Structure formats: structure tokens, C-alpha cells
């Protein structure tokens, strides 16, 4: 009975350890400053800014992932002010949009980056 218990416990720990989500980062430089960048296609500008439920879920998701920089594709119907309002909801005060017609792309960030 004790052997079965130990076997079961060991098997449980092994399965749990193998299936647990782990996140790791690799760098070839020691003490490198890390930055989280996410690229995301919002598909037709969240239905031309009408899909408020999807926008709210997106804002929650971005807050959870907490990127320093977010690159966005298919900002259909977005003007720069629309992107500013959206980015403000997830804590990014800096925005840039490439163009405002067709399939625009844009970028938002927590910090001002000077290149």
C-alpha cells in the first residue's frame, strides 16, 4: 500500500512538473536590459471600431501581457486619436500610426524611444 502511494505521488509530481507552464528567457549577454514587444493583428480595426466587446477583451489581454511596445496591424478606420484613446486604456501614452487609409499599421509604447 505504501509503495502504491509513493508511486502514485511520484507520478503525480512528474506529470505536474512536465505540464506546468514555465517561462524562460535566454540572452547571449549578461545583465542585458530586457524589453517585451508584442505584434498583434486586430483584424479590420475591430470591425471598424464597432466591436466594443472585443476591444475590451483586447485591452484586458494587453494589460495582462504588459508589453513595453505593441505593434498593431490592420488599424482599419483608426485615426491617430483613436489609437491614442485605445492605447491610453492599457497604459501606453506614446503612439504612432503610419497612415490612416487602407490597412494602417501603428505602434504604441510605455516609454518614449529615441533612435
What shape does the CA trace take?
Answer: globular
Strands of the biggest beta sheet: in what spatial order?
1-2-4-3
Helix vs. strand class: alpha+beta
Taking all Cα atoms into account, the compactness measure Rg is 21 Å
Total helical segments: 4
Tell me what you see in this structure.
The relative contact order is 0.13. It is globular, with a radius of gyration of 21 Å. It has helices at residues 2-19, 43-49, 52-65, 80-89, and strands at 37-41, 69-73, 94-97, 105-109. The longest helix has 18 residues, at 2-19. 43% of the residues lie in helices and 17% in strands. It starts with a helix and ends in a 6-residue tail after the last strand. It has a 4-stranded mixed β-sheet with strand order 1-2-4-3, with helices on one face. With 115 residues, it is α+β, with helices and mostly antiparallel strands.
Summarize the structure.
This protein has helices at 2-19, 43-49, 52-65, 80-89; strands at 37-41, 69-73, 94-97, 105-109. It has 115 residues and is of the alpha+beta class. 13% of the residues are buried.
Features:
four-stranded mixed sheet, 43% helix, 115 residues, 4 strands, alpha+beta
Helix-strand blueprint:
Layout: H1 2-19, E1 37-41, H2 43-49, H3 52-65, E2 69-73, H4 80-89, E3 94-97, E4 105-109
Parallel strand pairs: 1-2
Antiparallel strand pairs: 2-4, 3-4
Amino acid at each position: 500500500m505504501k509503495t502504491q502511494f509513493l508511486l502514485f505521488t511520484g507520478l503525480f509530481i512528474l506529470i505536474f512538473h512536465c505540464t506546468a507552464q514555465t517561462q524562460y528567457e535566454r540572452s547571449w549577454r549578461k545583465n542585458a536590459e530586457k524589453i517585451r514587444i508584442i505584434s498583434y493583428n486586430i483584424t479590420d480595426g475591430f470591425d471598424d471600431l464597432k466591436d466594443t466587446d472585443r476591444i475590451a477583451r483586447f485591452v484586458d489581454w494587453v494589460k495582462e501581457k504588459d508589453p513595453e511596445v505593441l505593434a498593431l496591424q490592420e488599424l482599419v478606420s483608426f485615426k491617430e486619436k483613436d489609437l491614442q484613446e485605445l492605447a491610453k486604456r492599457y497604459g501606453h501614452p506614446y503612439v504612432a500610426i503610419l497612415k490612416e487609409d487602407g490597412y494602417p499599421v501603428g505602434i504604441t509604447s510605455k516609454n518614449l524611444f529615441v533612435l
